[in-house]
Amino acid sequence: MKKPDNSSILNVCLIPSEGVSKLCEQASQSLKSKDTMFVLGDGKFAHMTVFMARFANQDIEKVAKLVDEAVAEFKTFDCTHKGFFITDGRYYEVSYAKSEPLMKLQQTLIDKISSLRINPGRPFEESYFAPYNEQQQQNAAQTGYDLAGDLYRPHVTLTRYNEGCTPKEITMPDDMDLSFKASKICLYLADDNGAVYEKIAGYNLL
């Protein structure tokens, strides 16, 4: 399927606290090598995607207003660090607990904005996690986001490795705690790999 014209990927994400963001950047920079595609701090920053989908450019302002409505009912909540994870897609991530407030936030965003997405039911298969497995295809068709619901994996990406270069094991300090209190949500434009690059709007939780 051809990528829809005049459309953009929109990423609604949580921004960690300044201290945790700096620690994530330091951890990411420590992994930088010829084997990595990117690291934080080189034009990229720590963020936790809550919901992401492709929308028509003409609807971006409308989406921003609906996100504002969606987050207005939420208060700050804890995002608890649960370790690290290497994905099948060669990403190395900081893992977080799949908490009730976080899942409720995702579902509220889906209820508010997913109907505006491009091609509901038959979405363009984005390159940031293609090819999709069967459950991802179902998620993408239903919500626009392949990792929604049961497949959602709360995380902050530290790096992605080049094809054939993913280490079998990566060691981080045992005492590293990257937990933070979710208080800042942003809406960003994201590139074809899902990486955010331009802020559309910011929202603060009470």
Would you kindly provide a written description of the structure presented here, covering whatever features stand out?
With 206 residues, this protein is of the alpha+beta class. The chain has a single domain, classed as Cyclic phosphodiesterase (Cyclic Phosphodiesterase, Chain: A). The protein has four helices and ten strands; from the N terminus they run E-H-E-E-H-E-E-E-H-H-E-E-E-E. The protein has a four-stranded antiparallel β-sheet with strand order 3-1-9-10, with helices on one face. Helix 2 (60-71) runs antiparallel to helix 3. The longest helix is centred in the middle third of the chain and has 14 residues, at 100-113. It is globular and about 45 Å long. The chain starts with 6 loop residues before the first strand and ends with a strand. The model has no long low-confidence stretch (mean pLDDT 93).
